[in-house]
Amino acid sequence: MNFFLCLFAFISNADAADGFVFGKHIETWLIYTLVVLGLTLFGYMAVWGLGILRDLKSGQSIKQPWD
User: Fold this and answer.
1) Residue 24 β-bridge partners
2) In the chain, where are the structural domains located?
3) pTM to 2 decimals?
4) Chain segment 10-25, per-residue pLDDT in tens
5) SS3 sequence of the chain
6) List of residues 6+ apart from 26 with CB closer than 8 A
């Protein structure tokens, strides 16, 4: 536990004052965040879309969970 605290702890406020987090500029982290969120959205939509296609191709009526 102490290892992780030392690994991810900042020495002072001066470390984050220039906009660098873990050695990368904050805009880089924002781009990484957008890419990850975009890939997550794409994966979610693909799974949802494939499920709908599978249900439509089955020929049975689509039932609601409460039916």
Assistant:
1) 21
2) 18-60
3) 0.57
4) 555 555 566 677 778 8
5) CHHHHHHHCCCCCHHHHCCEECCEEHHHHHHHHHHHHHHHHHHHHHHHHHHHHHHHHCCCCCCCCCC
6) 19, 20
